[in-house]
Write the structure tokens for this entry.
Amino acid sequence: MNTQNKVALVTGAGVRVGNVIARQLAKSGARIAVHHRNSVAEAREFVAEIKDGGGDADLFQAELADRVQVEALVPAIVERFGSLDILVNSASVFRDRWLNETDDADWDENLAVNVTAPFVLSRAMAKHLDGKPGKIISLTDWKTTRPKRFAYGVSKAALGGLTKSLAAALAPSIQVNEVALGAILLPVTAAPDEDAELAQKLSSRTPLGRLGTPEEVAQVVMTLIENDYITGETIYVDGGQRLSRT
């Protein structure tokens, strides 16, 4: 797909990996629907930056755990831009909770944000495109069996299954793929004095010996968007972490 003048929704585009992906799409000529939940200042600044550079972007706030707000996103984007051609499911819930710490609210939120929202958005986008070409990319995790992050791991495994089911259901017009991430950025909860220690620990578990970068994730996302003969695939951006037993 040539991204020039295509409309792309990137969830969680105000900060972190989502922001870098959206930035790369904007550089390639796409018009960007910048979704955010609470990062209003960062998202607003990003939209202004795109417009100042001659691009087209607008701000869309939604709580992805709220089904009503999710269902309103695609119609709002289509009304603003006239189309929706690319969907990148980047936003997610990520917190440390073992099984015995996982209450119903935590379970429901993980499933709602990490699985149901991508499903609702993908279905609405496909209905809008009605057989025209489109791309859906979801960010998942290289390892979904995570007892320390129980609900998160289960939800990311479900998102991987959703990716393959959507790829089969939406072919041939829409290609659907996932990018499974390893250690890219430190958790936002990491205290400044713990960052160096955590970075060293994560790097030591990775055959390539370092953390990845959001830019490296964005490169893969762009490849999947630009290539029209890949669907139902999982691309690992984990520095080979899945090859290590440590």
Notes: The longest strand covers residues 134-141. The radius of gyration is 17 Å. Residues 74 and 121 are 7 Å apart (CA to CA). The chain has a mean pLDDT of 94.
